[in-house]
Design a protein that fits this description.
12 helices; mainly alpha
């Protein structure tokens, strides 16, 4: 029996988007979201609690010995913005911490939630879809870490361009979108598609997957808006970091479901197209 018709392009993307939104309210999804949230919150909360003041002091000492920082501080004084001097160090720390928080949340959701969410989508929507390959966990980890390092390098190299308003609106979401696309697409298909099937799907739906990733990149800009609420957010930076973890976890959980609905439906359609009618599906035994 053939699976339900798959709609490629924008119709398929929108169909997967509303299905993913509905799945976010399932009790199983809500429970799964707590694990990466708790791990990231404990890790970041602990580092912020015990290391935030030390990091501020170390960075302030480093800036005191840097001639460019004295030039900048002098310019602030001449412009009448002297009170902002105390916010320079926390602001720089936040600029370093936020990208690391995003990557940490993405990797935790991809590693801890995506395999289970992909199985949830399969069970509820595509029960006839069988696993034909299981990528080892270390390959998925290396893939995700490699993509994350490339994304962080791109952010560092383009940091001076963030002062350009147009680039600030387009650059970071594109980088985060590319990273989300790479990580979520691989982990969604890791336990279901063969390497050949995965390459075919990623090539055939490259534009749609990148558009989904970029949309998630813009959704991920919402937690970053917390830092624009005023100087109080810099004073309460450790607490705001933990709240950001929760928001990023929700965004990436939705992204995981979105990619699962789109790619698993595309995988089922691909197999329907290439398999002879009535041919049995290959089922792998469960992992020991």
């Amino acid at each position: 029996m053939r699976s339900e018709p798959f709609r490629a392009g924008l119709p398929g993307v929108l169909d997967a988007a509303w299905r993913a939104a509905l799945c976010c309210f399932l009790p199983r999804v809500i429970l799964l979201s707590w694990l990466p949230l708790l791990l990231a919150s404990v890790l970041l909360g602990g580092l912020a609690w015990w290391g935030w003041d030390d990091a501020n002091a170390a960075l302030r000492q480093a800036l005191d010995g840097w001639s460019l920082s004295h030039t900048l501080l002098g310019w602030l004084d001449r412009m009448g913005w002297g009170p902002l001097r105390s916010l320079i160090v926390p602001l720089l720390l936040v600029m370093v911490a936020v990208p690391l928080v995003v990557v940490l949340c993405l990797l935790l959701v991809a590693g801890l939630m995506t395999p289970s969410l992909a199985r949830l989508v399969r069970d509820r929507r595509l029960p006839a879809l069988q696993s034909r390959h299981r990528a080892p966990w270390w390959r998925s980890l290396l893939w995700s870490m490699g993509a994350s390092l490339l994304a962080l390098a791109a952010l560092v190299l383009t940091l001076p361009l963030w002062l350009v308003p147009l680039f600030a609106l387009l650059g970071p979401p594109l980088i985060w979108g590319w990273l989300t696309c790479r990580v979520m697409a691989f982990d969604t298909l890791a336990d279901w598609a063969t390497p050949e099937e995965r390459q075919t799907l990623l090539r055939r739906h490259r534009t749609a997957l990148l558009a989904m990733g970029v949309a998630c990149g813009y959704l991920g800009a919402a937690p970053a808006a917390l830092w624009a609420l005023g100087a109080l957010t810099l004073v309460l930076a450790p607490l705001v970091l933990v709240i950001s973890v929760w928001l990023y976890t929700l965004v990436f959980a939705y992204a995981s479901l979105w990619f699962a609905h789109f790619l698993l439906a595309a995988l089922a359609a691909l197999r329907d197209d290439v398999a002879p009618a009535g041919s049995p599906a290959l089922t792998l035994p469960p992992n020991p």
